[in-house]
């Protein structure tokens, strides 16, 4: 009798477990996050992030903060786009050795050309359509996508063969195989790839927002508002106090992001590592 | 008259029993880029409900047989008869580190698309059978090597396979754990009446588990031994030692 009760208890305890949760998580990460970040980014960029940036006489912390938010929005949009491109690309490379043989050398060459070399051409294209933010986001996207693609391909290559065999024996094919085996298995690599992508992104923002230097006869009125252009403008005008404020803001922001986002994600990704 | 009818009935029963679930006829397997064949004209059969063990030196093609039965590899030539529904227990366990015991056991059921209620019932049945009832929420990294193999066993049983393939599942475990798992495996084999095909590098292990043992050498069957000892088999009994010695002699010949 007690044994039976224990049984019933056990069955009930598990009525609401895990698979539903993971589905919700997936919904969050693959649908809600991109949509929300797009909305956030468009609101922020259309309100504050347009071109026609002119440096204020003397900047405030609020001003630095708004520049950081605008830049962050730009990076976030570029990152989400980079993920949407990089993940299918990495899966494609992993899927077929033939595709890998064609694409990988190509990637190696393209990746080794500094993204800034493309910049003038790209800018002229976007400026032609009067879409200045597009130019900045494109450059950020290209910078970010590579490290995600390469990390993820590396992660896919080190999945133990027993795991792949088990997936096949137990009937996980197609979307199921990608969703239940490949994507979880590369979480640690996606996290480190993303970390590198953001590091590269913050690095390139200094140039990506200061568009006028790439446009023949361009002026400061073509620059995009953001922490990158504030840094450049304050340093150019030799305003040390303002430059230090902007720099401090950037350092604190990146440090906070490191602490609250990357450390947490790195810890979370431990769960997905094979032994 | 009556006795004759009984006899034919018995006969029919026997011939049904003798139906082979797995049959390899002159099977060869050559991996591309490898000049030596992994299997070179292999012949053997496994009957329904049998505990069949394959032993042989490393590189003799043992694992290739399991891969062919599991559908992971295709034979290069020859004729293979095998059931569709097979499941496998791997040497490394091959558990997914991001899933807990329950979710790992559900893996095959989930892929089959069975109802949630059925999935839970089946998963718990086999988690209990392998003795991990209190570990269903634990993750593989929190389990011992023996417990991980138990999870692998439950995951394989849960898809109700016709054949259970075991690829040296106990070779990374210590002696005590291995012995315990042997005992439980025999118990499970007897209750579920599954056909088991196991690969092992240990002759003692094969003799303590299997009803029939196939000794292999360079991609071919060298000898097949019937082991008709009652369970539980004890390693110190004369019959046991005799079987081990006989096989060992051939093994090193």
The assigned CATH architecture of chain B is: 3-Layer(aba) Sandwich
Mean pLDDT value of chain A: 83
User: What low-confidence regions of chain B span 5 or more consecutive residues with pLDDT below 50?
Assistant: 12-16
CATH topology of chain A: MetI-like fold
**What's the order of the H and E elements of chain A?**
HHHHHHHHHHH
Number of domains of chain B: 1
Largest interface: A-B, 28 and 35 residues
CATH topology of chain B: Rossmann fold
Stretches of chain A where pLDDT falls below 50 for ≥5 residues? 1-21
Number of helix segments of chain A?
11
Tell how many strands the DSSP assignment of chain B holds: 9
Outline type of chain B:
globular
Oligomer classification: heterodimer
Largest β sheet strand count, sense and barrel closure of chain B: 6 strands, mixed
Rg on CA atoms of chain A, Å: 23 Å
Strand order in the largest sheet of chain B: 5-6-7-3-8-9
CATH class of chain A: Mainly Alpha
Helix content of chain B: 40-55%
Q: Given this structure, which CATH class of chain B is correct?
A: Alpha Beta
Protein model, in words:
The complex is a heterodimer of chains A (275) and B (253). Chain A starts with a helix and ends in a 6-residue tail after the last helix. Chain A is mainly alpha-helical. Chain A has helices at residues 2-13, 19-48, 61-95, 97-112, 115-128, 132-157, 161-169, 174-185, 187-208, 227-236, 240-269. Chain A has a single domain (23-269), classed as MetI-like (MetI-like fold, Orthogonal Bundle). In chain B, the strands form two sheets. Chain B has a six-stranded mixed sheet with strand order 5-6-7-3-8-9, with helices on both faces. Chain B is α/β, with parallel strands linked by helices and 253 residues long. Chain B has helices at 2-17, 62-70, 101-112, 116-129, 145-158, 175-192, 203-209, 238-251; strands at residues 20-29, 39-47, 51-55, 77-81, 86-89, 163-167, 195-200, 212-217, 220-226. Chain B has one domain (21-251): P-loop containing nucleotide triphosphate hydrolases (Rossmann fold, 3-Layer(aba) Sandwich). Chain B contains eight helices and nine strands. Helix content of chain B is 41%, strand content 23%. Chains A and B meet through helix 7 and helix 8 of A and strand 5, helix 3 and helix 4 of B.
């Amino acid at each position: 009798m007690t044994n039976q009760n224990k049984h019933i208890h056990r069955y009930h305890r598990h009525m609401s477990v895990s698979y539903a949760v993971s589905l919700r998580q997936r919904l969050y990460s693959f649908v809600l996050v991109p949509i929300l970040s797009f909305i956030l980014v468009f609101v922020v960029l259309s309100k504050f992030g347009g071109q026609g940036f002119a440096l204020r006489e003397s900047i405030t912390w609020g001003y630095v903060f708004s520049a950081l938010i605008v830049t962050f929005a730009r990076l976030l949009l570029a990152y989400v786009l980079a993920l949407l491109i990089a993940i299918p690309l990495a899966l494609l490379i992993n899927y077929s050795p033939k595709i890998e043989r064609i694409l990988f050398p190509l990637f190696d060459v393209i990746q080794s050309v500094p993204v800034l070399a493309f910049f003038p051409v790209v800018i002229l294209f976007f400026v032609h359509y009067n879409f200045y933010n597009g130019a900045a986001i494109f450059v950020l996207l290209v910078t970010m996508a590579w490290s995600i693609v390469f990390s993820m391909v590396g992660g896919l290559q080190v999945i133990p063969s027993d795991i792949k065999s088990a997936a096949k024996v137990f009937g996980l094919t197609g979307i199921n195989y990608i969703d239940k085996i490949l994507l979880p298995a590369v979480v640690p690599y996606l996290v480190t790839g993303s970390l590198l992508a953001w590091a590269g992104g913050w690095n390139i923002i200094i140039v990506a927002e200061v568009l006028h230097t790439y446009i023949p006869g361009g002026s400061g009125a073509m620059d995009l508002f953001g922490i990158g252009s504030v840094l450049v403008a304050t340093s150019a005008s030799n305003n040390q106090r303002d430059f230090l404020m902007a720099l401090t803001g950037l350092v604190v922001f990146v440090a906070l992001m490191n602490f609250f986002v990357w450390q947490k994600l790195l810890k979370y990704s431990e769960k997905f590592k094979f032994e | 008259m009556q006795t004759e009818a009984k006899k034919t009935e018995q006969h029919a029963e026997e011939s049904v029993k003798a139906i082979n679930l797995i049959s390899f006829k002159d099977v060869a397997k050559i991996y591309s880029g490898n000049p030596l064949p992994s299997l070179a004209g292999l012949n053997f059969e496994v009957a329904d409900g049998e505990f069949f063990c394959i032993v042989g030196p490393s590189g003799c093609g043992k694992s290739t047989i399991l891969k062919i039965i599991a559908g992971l590899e295709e034979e290069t030539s020859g004729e293979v008869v095998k059931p569709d529904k097979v499941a496998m227990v791997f040497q490394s366990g091959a558990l997914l580190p991001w899933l807990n015991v329950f979710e790992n056991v559900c893996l095959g059921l989930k892929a089959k698309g069975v109802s949630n209620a059925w999935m839970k019932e089946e998963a718990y049945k086999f988690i209990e059978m392998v003795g991990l009832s209190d570990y269903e929420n634990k993750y593989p990294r929190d389990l011992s090597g023996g417990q991980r193999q138990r999870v692998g066993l439950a995951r394989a049983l849960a898809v109700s396979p016709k054949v259970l393939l075991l690829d040296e599942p106990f070779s990374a475990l210590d002696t005590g754990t291995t012995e315990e798992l042997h005992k439980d495996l025999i118990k499970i084999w007897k209750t579920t009446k599954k056909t088991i095909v196991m690969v092992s590098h240990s002759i003692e292990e094969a003799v303590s588990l299997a009803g029939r043992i196939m000794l292999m050498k360079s991609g071919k069957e060298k000898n097949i031994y019937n082991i008709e000892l009652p369970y539980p088999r004890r390693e110190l009994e004369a019959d046991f030692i005799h079987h081990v010695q006989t096989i060992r002699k051939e093994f090193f010949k």
